[in-house]
Amino acid sequence: MKHATPLAILVISQLLAGQAVADMSIVNSRHNLSVSGPGEIRALSEDRICIFCHTPHNAAPSSPLWNRDLQPSNYVLYESSTLSATPQQPSGPTRLCLSCHDGTIALGNVLQPATGIQMNLELTAGRRSFLDTDISNDHPVSFNYYEALPNPELSPVIPAGLRTYGNGNIHCTTCHDPHDDTFGKFLVMGNQFSALCTTCHVNVAGWSGSSHATSAKIWFAGGGAGNARSVAERACASCHTPHGAGGPKRLLHQLEEEKNCYPCHDGTVADMDIKSQFNKISHHPVEATAIDVTGNAHDPAEDLMFLQGHVECVDCHNPHAANADQATAPNASGALALVSGKDQTNGIVNQVVYGYEVCFKCHGDSSDSIPLINRWSNENNTRLEFDPANPSYHPVVAIGRNPDMPSLPSTHEPQLTSTSMLSCTDCHDSDSSAAIGGSGPRGPHGSIYRPILRQRYDTMDNLPESETSYALCYRCHDRTKLLDDQGLYNASGHKQHVVDEHAPCSACHDPHGVRYDGNGDHTHLINFDSAIVGPFPGNATPLFYDLGTRAGRCLLVCHGVSHDGSAAFTYP
Fold first, then answer.
1. Do 177 and 188 form a contact (C-beta atoms < 8 A)?
2. What single string gives the DSSP state of each residue in 360-384?
3. Phi-psi category of 511—alpha, beta or left, where left has phi over 0 and alpha has psi -120 to 50?
4. Is residue 21 scored above 70 in pLDDT?
5. 143-197: per-residue pLDDT in tens?
6. What is the DSSP string of 190-233?
7. Rounded Cα distance, 467 and 234, in Å
8. Who's near 294: CB < 8 A, 6+ residues apart?
């Protein structure tokens, strides 16, 4: 028996190792465009694999061994307000990749053989690997990594294991290895839990503890069970795609920002169906695109001092940081984690501490809203309505000014006292909110009651009083105590006005707060509805005067009755 020589053993071992590598390499990948290739697109008869990109002779003069013509092309590049680097026209390895993937040159149009190679199909628009010459919706390439710094989200140095060119230039082959499809999509490493993405984007604020990074909920990509992966495993890919994004900014799957949220937040993946809330008659109009025709009015770099009217999901929620942490009023919950806002003084807050700071971002000094009710003292700036210096306000920003609150607590909210504080969402919430016993989500996404109120709040005059008509008020202010006139100690108080005269709560009370305007007193949220209450003859405005604890008098005309401030119109 003959023994194998060491050289023969080496050759055999290399061949065996080569076969193992081949099972994961270009031979069994879609980059094998020869007649033996496993992909849908392949040659009719050409059996050489490397020839579609490489040739040992008569190659393209601009790139050694390259077998494709590199015709000049003008590419539309990626732009972003949050990218400090400036991508250049594709060069180096990126240009080589695009000689196929931009679709401008037929796949079989190689330099050698000069006659080209006949293919069964071509790379055309609609295919996942077709990028076109408009690469504005693809991850930026042909830029220098260090030009993108400083950026707290990015690694301060080029991560080890990622290939760059020259002095840190990023190209297609930084993320892709065209010869090895071990990890799928020719990635240079596995991307489960977005491991590849977070190699560079290593310090995304709030990400590690966020719901999107930790959720075990299963998301069925493409609807097939074979594509089932948890939200945490998909990570960045739940919302972002490096190629063929829906629009030219942020690399989101869908052009309209909210449509990137709906695939999970329609109740199929996330516990609550947020999507249906935006179909209700009163909702935050995330679908409006008048400000930005691309469908995404929000910009992460927008100036909060000069906002144009718009609202998107990400104006209130940071998808990289949002979590399930609970909070008590007025503190911001995890749903608002790392969101920007405005504080009570109109100062910019990069990361809100209090929930109302998110609301003040739009409903404060930048608000151009039309008031729900025209009052004798109108104020459209919600931030100013809640000013702690006001004569009265609901305790959202500060504890209320009135220590005597006989209508508190109610049977619905037995924990409330005169020192309790509220959040905006204690009133502005879904009508199906779990906070009132419903099965729906919390938050001011949408409601059947205007303006995004969790319960009914009738403001029309001459409506019969009922527990449901003013359910929003009675949620906190005990109905029995109010109508027994514990608040006024007088039979002509709340009961006469609301029950007997059919006056709504809003006829006298302005729910956010009232600023001092020099016309009477505005304690107890008194600010009359101008459609119901008029001035006493000779006066410019209707007047209320606070006479101390549970006492006051009115000088006005209401329901045709002149309240002249006499004993008959003094409480108690």
1. yes
2. HHHHSTT--PPPSS-BSS----HHH
3. alpha
4. no
5. 999 999 999 999 999 999 899 999 999 999 999 999 999 999 999 999 999 999 9
6. --GGGTTHHHHSTT-TTGGGSHHHH---EEEGGG-GGGEEEHHH
7. 48
8. 247, 248, 249, 255
Amino acid (one-letter) located at 504: P
Residue 118 has pLDDT above 80, yes or no: yes
Domain ranges in the chain?
Answer: 218-361
Determine contact, residues 80/89, Cβ cutoff 8 Å.
no
The predicted model scores a pTM of 0.90
Question: Which pLDDT tens digit goes with each residue over 458-502?
Answer: 999 999 999 999 999 999 999 999 998 766 655 568 999 999 999
pLDDT at 508: 97
Q: Check: CB of residue 118 under 8 Å from CB of residue 108.
A: yes
Write down the pLDDT at residue 296: 55
- In whole angstroms, give the CA distance from residue 511 to residue 502: 19
Is 184 exposed, middle or buried (CB count within 10 Å of its CB: 0-12, 13-18, 19+)? exposed
DSSP string, 271-285: SSB-GGGGGSSEE--
Distance from the Cα of residue 107 to its chain's centroid: 41
Q: What are phi and psi of 448, to 5 degrees?
A: -80, -10
- Give whole-number Cα distances, 501 to 480, 497, 561, in Å: 17, 5, 11
What is the per-residue burial (b if ≥16 Cβ within 10 Å, else e) of 266-297? eeebbebbbbbbbebebbbebeebebbeebbb
Report the distance separating Cα 131 and Cα 138, nearest Å. Answer: 8
What number is the average pLDDT over the span 293-312?
78
Q: Is the pLDDT of residue 299 over 80?
A: yes
